[in-house]
């Protein structure tokens, strides 16, 4: 357990992305099997344990120590797992700060798998006695089901890939064919066996992404234009027997949108925008906010599906049957997609139209005219572009509507005043530096609805990592799309930037924090 | 009991001696336990303290009228017998033992129970009233063995020969202790120090504390500090000053580092739990050992210690002294 708990501590204290990757890579190389596989599952959020309730942990610590001292400690430290890990009084004959080595990570996982709710406090207590404070912290984080060490699944996979000189996209491709503790993955990585074969499983393919358009225009003989929809990017993967839906980050969100997964029975991989039917977006798609109601829910009620009926607006076909189309030019894939549409039920799937414009000026007019429809902007796709993972220069561009926007990560929140005084309504947000650190770039306290404010307030309270008087520091996981009129150089801020009239345009629950914008990217918008 | 000694928000007043212990306002007659600024203020008429504490105060506030009191020496002051006993906190730190009217009061100032190569160890003195600090008065504070923390520091240093380890350490006490602990572990390379540590290190050296070769970190080419340990006051850790160091690993030596979020708040990558204050076990063990009739708790997280005393049938009260708020940098 010690190796794993030291890894977690390292990830907590290390600020730079590269530093975190080095730690993960070193662990993946050095730790024994099957521990490292379980660690990889824990870091990527694929550890499926029945979470031990925090009340069980409270019961466990109260049985061991003075409840008043526990409450005082909890008040001071804040985090339950950390309080209990630090406070845990070992039995008289054991030194407090020693991991006796008797518990491996996999042994801990095995016990947590087998644990019943009633037996949880005792079983946990028994394990606690063999660990040092870091080990106890790691154990409690595993048991309560959230490591919260500030890394994404993607970063963990990147660290794994780095350990063995693999390409992370290659890892991503085989990932969904595998299950913890990923024995086949390590066998492949260390050359003991061939690449695991993901065929026959509905695994995720990395998305093709777009750069913001910076040039003044592009030639529409080279580029096709489509609307950029205000929904959630989604990948539909069907094997003919099973269908899964993946989000931008490669998370399986089939459970949140079962009606879509059930309506698709084909053998294909498609790329599109998940939307909710409603009165916006040309009378067909409800606002992004309506879609938010459906996100992040593991179980969906029939009422939710009725109130917010989901459908997918398709714009690319990656694979049809056994035919991988990704190397083909966009025009050919588009033709295949249009032909494919016929077999899909129209209430769940439609086609994202290509905008018919003779030249770029005309397109600009059309884009400006679309101002009232809840359309995010325009996508420009090179007609001969293959479908390639990630952001490749000059293939796809996103041309968002004014005002300027940036995807930022919430860092701090402060209580508002007046009628908002009980809500955390003032948010400081940041963008990434080249070193993978977040730097604050602005502060906003408007732009959201009352409903959204309630949600944001709950997020802040549930994800606080620190308190400084009236200010809370939060887990750096929530992406806020911030709209602003202009951005300027500023000596007052560490980022060297100051936004004019920043406001929260949208809450991007679907977007991984790692994919938020960079300080360097913002700098390009300086006027 | 002991009506001759009075706690006030600005210090502890010893009535028959007409003297204040660690007063936060200038007083005619001050008895000072040790040199940290929240205990030793400038501007008093006359100060009684150890020779070391007087020297530290002179360094900070300029020379003032003072009487040096050696450890163990007895002095009489208005019918009160006064004795200074080692507190194990920093160089020159003392507990003040007062006897009057058949009662004995011990005022610890700040103290710790673990070995410290830069000062004499704490001596427990049985007493009627024990006035204790409670900086780390919560059971989550259990300082690990100093050796294991120093080993982690050296391991980080050796694992990154192209970087330096920048250790934030309080200028009086912690910095010199960390240097001496490093020397005791066989680390004899020059250690670079921030300008704000120079005078205090020189003072320690004058009192015979051997810290090996110390070099000013200012004006040194960056490359010379690769693979070296650099010490600065905690306030300089994230300061412009540290930007010219070779890719520093930021460490901090403090009891507060026990709590992860405290370390993250300060952007510390290598938290070293090394404290000059008693941890929870030391506080409670010491109270048991000196077995006072009554315990007064001066500053820190007094609530928890008060509760502990209550559940152990020890009479206790919390004194609300001003100016002794959490000094995050000390600890």
Task: Describe what is shown at a glance.
The complex is a heterodimer of chains A (527) and B (331). Chain A has 527 residues and is α+β, with helices and mostly antiparallel strands. In chain A, helix 1 (2-13) packs antiparallel against helix 2 (17-30), helix 4 runs parallel beside helix 6 (80-87) and helix 5 (67-77) packs across helix 6.
Descriptive report:
The complex is a heterodimer of chains A (527) and B (331). Chain A is built from 20 helices and 21 strands. Chain A is an alpha+beta fold and 527 residues long. Chain B is α/β, with parallel strands linked by helices and 331 residues long. Chain B contains 7 helices and 19 strands. Chain B has helices at residues 51-61, 146-159, 174-184, 195-206, 260-265, 280-290, 302-311; strands spanning 5-8, 11-14, 19-21, 29-31, 46-49, 66-68, 74-77, 80-86, 94-100, 103-107, 129-134, 165-168, 191-193, 214-216, 229-232, 249-253, 270-272, 294-300, 315-318.
Structural category of chain B is alpha/beta
Number of strands of chain A: 21
- Give the strand content of chain B: 25-35%
Approximately what portion of the residues of chain A adopt beta-strand conformation? Answer: 15-25%
- Seen as an oligomer or otherwise, the chain set is heterodimer
Topology:
The complex is a heterodimer of chains A (527) and B (331).
Chain A lengths: L1 H12 L3 H14 L4 H9 L10 H11 L2 H11 L2 H8 L17 H10 L5 H9 L4 H12 L8 H11 L4 H8 L7 H7 L18 E2 L1 E2 L10 E7 L2 E8 L3 E4 L11 H6 L3 E10 L4 H4 L3 H5 L9 H6 L2 E11 L2 E2 L5 H11 L8 E3 L8 H10 L5 E8 L7 E2 L4 E5 L3 E12 L8 E9 L5 E7 L5 H13 L1 E5 L2 E4 L4 E6 L1 E4 L7 E4 L2 E6 L10 H5 L4
Parallel strand pairs in A: 1-11, 2-12, 7-9
Antiparallel strand pairs in A: 3-10, 4-5, 4-6, 6-7, 7-8, 10-12, 13-14, 13-17, 13-18, 14-15, 16-17, 18-21, 19-20
Helix pairs in contact in A: 1-2, 1-9, 2-10, 4-6, 4-8, 5-6, 6-9
Chain B lengths: L4 E4 L2 E4 L4 E3 L7 E3 L14 E4 L1 H11 L4 E3 L5 E4 L2 E7 L7 E7 L2 E5 L21 E6 L11 H14 L5 E4 L5 H11 L6 E3 L1 H12 L7 E3 L12 E4 L16 E5 L6 H6 L4 E3 L7 H11 L3 E7 L1 H10 L3 E4 L13
Parallel strand pairs in B: 3-4, 4-5, 5-6, 10-11, 11-18, 12-15, 12-16, 13-14, 13-15, 16-17, 18-19
Antiparallel strand pairs in B: 1-2, 2-3, 7-8, 8-9, 9-10
């Amino acid at each position: 357990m010690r190796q794993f708990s030291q890894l977690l501590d390292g990830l907590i204290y290390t600020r730079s992305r590269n530093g975190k990757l080095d730690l993960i890579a070193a662990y993946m190389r050095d730790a024994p099997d099957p521990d490292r596989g379980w660690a990889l599952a824990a870091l990527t959020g694929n550890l499926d344990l029945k979470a031990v309730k925090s009340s069980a942990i409270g019961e466990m610590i109260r049985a061991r120590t003075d409840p008043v001292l526990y409450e005082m400690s909890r008040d001071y430290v804040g985090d339950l797992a950390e309080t209990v890990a630090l406070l845990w009084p070992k039995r008289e004959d054991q030194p407090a700060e020693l991991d006796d080595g008797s518990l491996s990570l996999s042994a801990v996982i095995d016990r947590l798998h087998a644990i019943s709710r009633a037996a949880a406090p005792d079983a946990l207590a028994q394990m606690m006695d063999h660990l040092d404070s870091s080990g106890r912290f790691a154990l409690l984080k595993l048991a309560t089901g959230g490591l919260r060490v500030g890394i994404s699944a993607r970063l963990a996979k990147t660290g794994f890939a780095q350990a063995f000189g693999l390409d992370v996209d290659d890892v991503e491709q085989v990932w969904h064919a595998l299950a913890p503790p990923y024995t086949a993955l390590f066998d492949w990585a260390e050359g003991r066996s061939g690449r695991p074969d993901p065929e026959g499983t509905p695994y995720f393919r990395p998305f093709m992404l777009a750069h913001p358009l910076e040039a003044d225009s592009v030639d529409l003989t080279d580029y096709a234009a489509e609307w950029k929809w205000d929904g959630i990017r989604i990948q539909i993967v069907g094997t003919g027997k099973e269908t899964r839906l993946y989000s931008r980050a490669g998370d399986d969100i089939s459970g949140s949108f079962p009606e879509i997964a059930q309506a698709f029975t084909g053998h294909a991989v498609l790329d599109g925008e998940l939307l909710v039917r409603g009165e916006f977006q040309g009378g067909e798609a409800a606002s992004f906010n309506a879609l938010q109601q459906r996100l992040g829910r593991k179980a969906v009620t029939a009422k939710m599906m009725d109130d917010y009926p989901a459908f997918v607006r398709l714009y690319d076909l990656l694979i049809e049957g056994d035919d991988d189309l990704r190397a083909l030019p966009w025009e050919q894939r588009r033709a295949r997609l249009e032909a494919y549409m016929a077999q899909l039920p129209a209430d769940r799937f439609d086609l994202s139209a290509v905008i018919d414009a003779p030249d770029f000026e005309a397109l600009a007019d059309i884009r400006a005219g679309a101002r009232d429809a809840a359309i995010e902007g325009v996508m420009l796709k090179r007609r001969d572009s293959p479908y390639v993972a990630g952001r490749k220069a000059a293939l796809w561009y996103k041309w968002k509507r004014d005002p300027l926007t940036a995807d930022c990560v919430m860092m701090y929140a402060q209580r508002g005043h007046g009628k908002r005084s009980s809500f955390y309504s003032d948010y400081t947000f940041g963008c990434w530096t080249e070193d993978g650190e977040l730097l604050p770039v602005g502060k906003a306290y408007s732009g959201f609805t009352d409903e959204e404010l309630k949600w944001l307030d709950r997020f802040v309270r549930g994800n606080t990592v620190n308190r400084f008087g009236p200010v809370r520091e939060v887990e750096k996981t929530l992406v806020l799309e911030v709209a602003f009129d202009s951005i300027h150089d500023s000596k007052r801020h560490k980022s060297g930037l100051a936004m004019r009239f920043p406001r929260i345009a949208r809450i991007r629950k679907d977007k991984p924090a790692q994919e938020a914008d960079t300080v360097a990217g913002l700098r390009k918008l300086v006027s | 009991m002991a009506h001759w000694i009075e706690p006030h928000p600005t210090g502890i007043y010893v009535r028959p001696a007409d003297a204040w212990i660690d007063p936060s306002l200038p007083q005619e007659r001050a008895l000072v336990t040790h040199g940290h600024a929240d205990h030793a203020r400038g501007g008093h008429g006359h100060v009684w303290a150890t020779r070391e504490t007087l020297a530290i105060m002179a360094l900070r506030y300029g020379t003032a009228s003072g009487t040096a009191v050696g450890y163990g020496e007895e002095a009489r002051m208005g019918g009160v017998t006064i004795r200074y006993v080692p507190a194990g906190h920093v160089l020159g730190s003392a507990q003040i033992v007062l006897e009057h009217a058949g009662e004995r009061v011990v005022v610890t100032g700040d103290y710790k129970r673990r070995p410290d190569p830069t000062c004499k160890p704490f001596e427990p003195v049985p007493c009627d009233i024990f006035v204790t600090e409670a900086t780390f008065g919560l059971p989550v504070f259990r300082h690990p063995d100093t050796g294991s923390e120093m080993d982690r520091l050296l391991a980080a240093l050796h694992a990154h020969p192209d970087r330096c380890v920048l250790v934030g350490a309080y200028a009086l006490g912690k910095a010199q202790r960390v240097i001496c602990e490093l020397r005791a572990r066989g680390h004899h390379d020059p250690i670079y120090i921030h300008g704000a540590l120079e005078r205090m290190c020189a003072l320690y050296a004058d009192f015979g504390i051997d810290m090996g070769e110390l070099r000013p970190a200012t004006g040194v080419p960056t490359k010379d500090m690769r693979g070296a340990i650099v010490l600065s006051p905690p306030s300089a850790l994230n300061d412009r000053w540290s930007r010219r160091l070779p890719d520093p690993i930021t460490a901090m030596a403090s009891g507060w580092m026990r709590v992860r979020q405290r370390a993250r708040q300060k952007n510390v990558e290598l938290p070293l739990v090394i404290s000059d204050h008693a941890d929870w076990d030391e506080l409670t063990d010491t109270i048991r050992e000196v077995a006072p009739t009554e315990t007064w708790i001066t500053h820190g997280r007094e609530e928890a210690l008060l509760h502990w005393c209550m559940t152990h049938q020890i009479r206790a009260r919390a004194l609300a002294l001003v100016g002794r708020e959490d000094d995050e940098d000390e600890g």
